[in-house]
Amino acid sequence: MSRWKRPLTRFAGTPSDDPADSRTPATASGFLTIGDTTYIDPEGSYPLDHRADGSATLVINDTDRQITIVTERNSHHSPAPPGDPTAPAPAPAPAAGLVLAPGERTETRGGDSVRVG
């Protein structure tokens, strides 16, 4: 009867085969500019503040990934679910608005946030 001489645990520093690790979006390299703020190697979502004077906010995608301007949720106008008029309406998921490829820019007066990836 032969015995295994190799331990069954993963060595430190070896890459993981866990599928949960592959679902995490990688950090984009480059710069994301929203209005007067520039983010270096952005990851995740960033707020899109609207200017008090009503002018458009400049969004520049100088990263290696696409970005999405997510529109407002508008949850206070959602209808109640059918069957129970007293039940609160579920908040709708944010809807994708405009998608910018790497190197693109736009000016926007709408939107709730900017999502990388």
TrEMBL record:
Species classification: Bacteria, Bacillati, Actinomycetota, Actinomycetes, Kitasatosporales
Bias type Low complexity, positions: 94-103
Compositional bias (Pro residues): 79-93
Name of the protein described by the UniProt record: Uncharacterized protein
Region ranges (Disordered): 1-29, 72-117
Basic and acidic residues bias spans: 104-117
